C-alpha cells in the first residue's frame, strides 16, 4: 500500500534554520500549515516544534490547531466568505482581508463573540490575486480603522501565487511606504509589513530585503528547503522532508507501443506513436497509486533509471527498461515530491500518512 512519510528530524532542522534566520533579522513569522490538509498527526508535529503562529486557508484546520494548543496564534490566509464569518472569527485570531464589506461583517461578528479580531490588509502589488489597489488604500483604511472589535495589525501582499510575479525590493519598499503614510495620516501604529513568503526568502539571504518588511508567512521552504528564485535546495536545509513510497502491483515485460485503434484516454490525451519503437519491449511496473492521489509530473523518482510513462485514476505506470535494479512485485518505489505533489497526496484519504525520526 502506498504511504507518505514525514521525516521529523529533517522538518525540525529546517524549522530551526528558519527560526535562526528570522531571529537574526528581527522578523516575526508564522508557519503555513495548509499543505497538511488538516492531518492531526502532522499538525501536532508542527506544534511540537514550538511554533507560535500557524496560518491556514481552511477554517477547519485552524480549529484543529486550537484543539491541539489554544495558545497558538491562528491566521486565516484567504478572504473569508460571508457564510464562514462566524467560524472564522471563532477559530482565527488574525485574518488577511481586502474587502470592505467582509471586514464590516467580521466586525459585527467579533462584537457578538466579544472578541478582538486582528486584520492584515492585503495590498495589490502586481500578481493580480487578492489585494486593495494602492491608490485606494488610504480611503479603504479610513472606512475600517474605527470599526469595533477590529485591530489592524499589518499591511500584506502576495506575490508569485497566480501570475508568477516575483518579489523585488522596489515592490516591498512601496508596501512599507504605504504603511508609513497611513501611520502619519491616522496617527496610529501598524506593527507588521507582512510581505514575506517562501519566495521572498532569497531576498533576505542576499541582504536585499527592505528593512520595513518584518513579518513572513512560510510554508514551502519549511517543507522542501527550496530557494524559489533558483529552484535549488538552500544550503543547510533538507529537500526530502516528505517521501512517497508506492508498491509495485504488477511487473511484466511488454511492448513499448500499444496495439489497436487509438482514441483519447480518460484524461483526454491521444497517444502519439513513435514508429521507431515498433517491435521493442521493456519491463513495466504498475504502482498502487494514481491520478486520484497525485499528478505524476510532481513526483521525483529516487531511482533515475526508470521513467513515468503515464497514469490512470488509480495506477501509475513505470518503464523500467531492462530492470537493472531487479524490481519485483511487492517492492516499494520511492519518490521525492514537489509542493503540489505533496498537496495532492495529503488531500488523498487513500494514501497512509506516517512519521519517522
Automatic annotation (TrEMBL):
Key word Transferase present: no
Keyword annotations of the record: Isomerase, Pyridoxal phosphate
InterPro entries: Ala_racemase (IPR000821), Ala_racemase_N (IPR001608), PLP-binding_barrel (IPR029066)
Top enzyme class: isomerase
Cofactor(s) named in the record: pyridoxal 5'-phosphate
Pfam families per the UniProt record, alphabetical: Ala_racemase_N
Alanine racemase N-terminal domain sequence ranges: 8-224
Protein name per its UniProtKB record: Alanine racemase
One example GO MF annotation: alanine racemase activity
Amino acid at each position: 500500500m502506498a504511504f507518505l512519510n514525514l521525516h521529523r528530524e529533517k522538518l525540525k532542522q529546517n524549522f530551526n534554520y528558519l527560526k535562526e534566520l528570522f531571529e537574526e533579522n528581527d522578523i516575526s513569522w508564522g508557519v503555513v500549515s495548509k499543505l497538511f490538509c488538516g492531518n492531526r498527526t502532522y499538525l501536532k508535529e508542527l506544534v511540537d516544534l514550538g511554533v507560535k503562529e500557524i496560518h491556514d486557508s481552511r477554517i477547519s484546520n485552524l480549529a484543529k490547531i486550537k484543539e491541539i494548543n489554544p495558545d497558538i496564534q491562528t491566521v486565516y490566509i484567504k478572504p473569508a466568505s460571508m457564510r464562514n464569518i462566524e467560524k472564522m472569527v471563532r477559530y482565527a485570531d488574525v485574518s488577511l482581508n481586502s474587502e470592505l464589506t467582509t471586514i464590516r461583517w467580521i466586525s459585527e461578528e467579533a462584537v457578538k463573540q466579544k472578541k478582538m479580531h486582528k486584520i492584515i490588509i492585503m495590498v495589490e502589488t502586481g500578481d493580480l490575486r487578492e489585494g486593495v489597489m494602492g491608490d485606494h488604500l488610504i480611503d479603504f483604511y479610513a472606512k475600517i480603522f474605527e470599526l469595533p472589535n477590529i485591530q489592524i495589525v499589518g499591511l500584506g501582499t502576495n506575490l508569485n501565487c497566480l501570475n508568477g510575479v516575483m518579489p523585488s525590493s522596489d515592490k516591498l519598499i512601496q508596501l512599507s511606504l504605504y504603511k508609513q503614510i497611513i501611520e502619519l495620516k491616522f496617527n496610529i501604529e501598524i506593527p507588521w509589513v507582512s510581505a514575506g513568503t517562501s519566495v521572498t526568502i532569497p531576498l533576505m539571504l542576499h541582504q536585499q530585503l527592505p528593512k520595513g518588511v518584518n513579518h513572513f508567512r512560510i510554508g514551502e521552504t519549511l517543507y522542501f528547503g527550496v530557494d524559489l528564485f533558483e529552484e535549488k535546495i538552500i544550503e543547510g536545509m533538507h529537500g526530502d522532508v516528505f517521501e512517497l513510497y508506492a508498491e509495485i502491483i504488477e511487473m511484466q515485460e511488454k511492448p513499448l507501443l500499444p496495439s489497436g485503434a487509438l482514441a483519447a484516454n480518460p484524461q483526454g490525451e491521444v497517444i502519439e506513436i513513435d514508429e521507431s519503437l515498433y517491435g521493442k519491449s521493456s519491463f513495466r511496473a504498475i504502482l498502487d497509486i494514481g491520478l486520484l492521489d497525485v499528478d505524476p509530473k510532481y513526483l521525483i523518482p529516487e531511482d533515475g533509471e526508470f521513467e513515468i510513462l503515464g497514469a490512470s485514476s488509480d495506477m501509475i505506470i513505470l518503464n523500467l527498461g531492462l530492470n537493472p535494479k531487479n524490481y519485483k512485485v511487492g517492492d516499494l518505489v520511492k519518490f521525492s515530491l514537489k509542493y503540489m505533489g505533496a498537496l495532492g497526496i495529503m488531500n488523498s484519504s487513500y494514501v497512509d500518512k506516517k512519521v519517522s525520526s
